[in-house]
Amino acid sequence: MFTDKLNTVRITAAAASAAPTVGSVTHTVVPRLRSQTAKFASPKVSEVRRHAGRVVLLTYQADSAKDPVTGKVVRDAFERYAYYRSGHEVDVTLSGPVNADNVDPWRIISDSFTWR
Fold it and tell me: What would the CATH number be for the domain defined by 2-112?
C-alpha cells in the first residue's frame, strides 16, 4: 500500500481457481465491502480492458479512516481492478477524495500493471 496526499494505491494478490466476473464481484466482493467499509455506497461493477487484458472494475464510495493527527474523515472514491491469469488474482485498488481529478493518474496506474 502506498499513500500520498490523501491518495492510496493498494495491491493484493491471491490464488484463485477462476477469473473474477462481473457476477462474482457483485455477489461476493460487494457484500463483503458493504459489511467492512464505513459508509460504503454506489457500487458499480463492469468489465474493462487494460494493457494486461480483460479486468473487472468495481467503483464505489466510502469514508476514509480517521486521520490520526487531525481526526478528519474524507469521503473517498474507489476503483478496484481485478486482474487474473493462470490461477492468480491481483487486485489493484485506487482511492482518493471524491471529486478529485484522478481520471488520468488512475488510468496510467491501472494500465501499468503487467504480468511477469
Answer: 3.40.1000.10
Choose among 14, 81, 87, 94: nearest CA to 46: 81
The residue ranges of every structural domain in the chain are 2-112
Cα gap 82→92, rounded to integer Å: 7
Q: What is the pTM of this model?
A: 0.93
- In this predicted structure, what is the pLDDT of residue 7? 92
Residue 79 amino acid letter: E
- The residue assigned the cell 480517521 is 66
Give the cell for residue 55. Answer: 479486468
Report whether 40 contacts 78 (CB < 8 A): no
The identity of residue 38, as a single letter, is A
Residues of the chain with pLDDT under 50: none
Cell of 69: 493527527
